Amino acid sequence: MGTLLSAPVSGALMDFDPYNTRTEADSTHQYGALVATSHGRDSYRHGKVGASNVSKGKLQQAPAPIANHVNQTIDSASNVAIGDKRVTLNNGGTAAAVGEYDQGWFITVDGTGEGQTLGVEHNAAAASSADIVVDLDQPLAVALVAGTTEYTLAHNPYNAFVEAAVQTRNPSGFPLRDLLLGDFGWLKNRGVSSALGGSAVSLGGILGSDASTAGAVTDATDQSGVDAIVKVGAASIVAGATGEYHPIVVSIE
């Protein structure tokens, strides 16, 4: 495996093992904590499995954006002052699970205070009829106006990652082992990994998520235009066949 070259997270990563999994209730590292191996060939990010069990060699992605948490207004009765680190948000009639947006982002989209990007420290659970209370990791630089300022909440792609047949979602990486719902583990985001081919994969092809098979990759040009797919790597070692796992060079970031 090689020793660690870098581990830009708090504390020592003595438990780093991409072939293992952890089942405790809380993460031992930040979502997306990055580790590079000493030989310089591979890097991994730490995350938590989302909606269902996931499989080795399959591409993982961020949770689906919630339409009613995009371009919504802050609560109609809650102005937010400069320096505040808590915001109360209209949830558009869609519930939010506790911690769903932890270590994700709060972005002010339009209106007073627009253009700010702040990390989410934590969000409380919110029923479909309730507002979402969000604690930020930095204070607001510009005040927000109740019922006027619009926001978007964005998930951390390593907090509850999923297998999905979606070509435009933020990719997370490839696990080297099967992981169960709620497990914590490591996803390869750079280096060589086996990858399931959703359709024939051409030698030299730039790869993105397949539109039909969850967790599979395919030539970007096989789909609806090169620019319509978020790229995850290249088939620069061998060509691949539909339904088979083949080595690709992962370059998610």
Question: How would you sum up this structure in a few lines?
Answer:
The chain has strands spanning 4-6, 34-37, 43-49, 60-61, 70-73, 86-89, 105-110, 117-123, 132-136, 150-154, 159-161, 171-175, 184-196, 206-209, 217-219, 231-234, 245-251. With 253 residues, it is mainly β. 38% of the residues are buried.
What does the model show?
The protein has no helices and 17 strands. It has 253 residues and is mostly beta strands. The strands form 2 sheets. Strands 1, 2, 3, 4, 11, 12, 13, 14, 15, 16 and 17 form an 11-stranded mixed β-sheet that branches. It has a 6-stranded antiparallel β-sheet with strand order 5-10-7-8-9-6, with no helix packed on it. The protein folds into 2 domains: 151 residues, no CATH class; 88 residues, Elongation Factor Tu (Ef-tu), domain 3 (Beta Barrel). The protein starts with a strand and ends with a strand. The N terminus is likely disordered. The chain is 0% helix and 34% strand. β7 and β8 form a beta hairpin.
Terminal CA distance:
21 Å
Determine the strand fraction and express it as a percent band: 25-35%
Helix content range of the residues, please? under 10%
Order of helices and strands: EEEEEEEEEEEEEEEEE
What form results from the Cα inertia axes? elongated
Q: Mean of the pLDDT scores?
A: 88
The helix/strand class is mainly beta
Give the domain tally.
Answer: 2
Uncertain parts:
1-12
Number of helices in the DSSP assignment = 0
Gyration radius (Cα, Å) is 19 Å
What's the number of extended β-strand segments? 17
Biggest sheet, open or closed, and with what strands and sense? 11 strands, mixed
